[in-house]
Amino acid sequence: MPRNAEVIRQWTILREIERARGGVTIDDLASLCAVTSRTIRRDLQALQESGFPLFDDRSHDDGRTRWNINGQALKGLSAGLTLSELCALYFSRTLVGALSGTPFREDVEHAFDKLAAGLTPHMRRFLDQLPHVIAAKPDAMYGRPVDEATDARKQQIIARALEATLHRRQATITYHSRSSQRTKPYLVHPYRLAHAMGALYLLAYVPEYLEIRTFAVERIQEISLLEERFTPVEELPETAFPDSLGVHSGQPEPVAIEFEAEAADYVRGRTWHRTQVVRDLPAGRVEMALNVCVDRALTSWILSFGPFARVISPAALARDIAHQLGAALSHYAHAGENGAADKAAGP
């Protein structure tokens, strides 16, 4: 039996015992985990040897023996956290890898160290096995190497942006726009920092344009805080970029896409956006309707399906996708001829 299966089962046992009021029997645990009662007994013994405060107690009502957890033994671990919550936080530290390069990783790792201090060495050894069953792939953007000087400057920009946001101080930034390839100064009212799509963004109201704009922190070259304060003119939604598949803040509009049978299960099996509605079509095809921003993230997502996706509406989006597919096709127009020529030329 794979070691991971044993670890996950023992974790399930811990959670079930803690959740069950009045305890849980070995037979119930065996049924839940689809193993024998003998296996459950070995798991309980292993958990006790790891330092988890488990004990068995015979019920006066039905005479059955139930397993419980000693809550008094957990009071010194962390205020307000149950054992399963503390353990879940501890082993989920593997997900911090996805924050690589962000200003939060070091602080989060320190927090995990403090959580670990509340666990016995045996508990930590047991829990150290759990991250092996969870993996996180860092985003490519933040996974790239940066020199110390660049990283220090970025951290300073982030720190100033956070201060401006927390204390509602106006700021001036020098920003390089990738779309226009221009660098220009802006007076901004910083509303929020948001981490999305592997990058950090500053959402700020720009008085010059009377609207909230999104600035990629990595392209902010300078930021200076002013003494003047600001009062927000509108509330931001709780979720960052709720109407986009990416990091756009534009107006959402109805979008309909038809997917061929080859992609249907993949499309149907995931939540791509909170507004999605999927309906079945003949021959195994599906149609998805969404209410989202028509932006680069949406077009990139549609293009990723290649010939298995077709935009039904809006018409402008369908034309844009067709144009991009045509442009891509032109790059391969002579691919077959070049390959044949290379083969004929020989080594």
Question: Secondary-structure map with pairings?
Answer:
Elements: H1 3-19, H2 26-33, H3 37-49, E1 54-58, E2 65-69, H4 83-91, H5 105-117, H6 121-127, H7 140-143, H8 148-167, E3 169-177, E4 182-196, E5 199-206, E6 211-216, E7 220-229, E8 253-259, H9 261-268, E9 277-280, E10 286-292, H10 296-303, E11 309-313, H11 315-331, H12 335-345
**SS strand fraction:** 15-25%
CATH superfamily of the largest domain: Winged helix-like DNA-binding domain superfamily/Winged helix DNA-binding domain
- CATH topology of the largest domain: the name is Arc Repressor Mutant, subunit A
CATH architecture designation of the largest domain: Orthogonal Bundle
> How is the biggest beta sheet arranged?
5 strands, antiparallel
The tally of beta strands, per DSSP, is 11
Tell me about this structure:
This protein folds into three domains: about 1-135, Orthogonal Bundle (Arc Repressor Mutant, subunit A), CATH 1.10.10; about 150-230, SH3 type barrels (Roll); about 255-330, Alpha-Beta Plaits (2-Layer Sandwich). A hairpin with a 2-residue loop joins strand 4 (about 180-195) and strand 5. Strands 6-5-4-3-7 form a five-stranded antiparallel beta sheet. It has a four-stranded antiparallel beta sheet with strand order 9-10-8-11. The chain has about 350 residues and is of the alpha+beta class. The longest helix has 20 residues, at about 150-165. Helix content is about 40%, strand content about 25%.
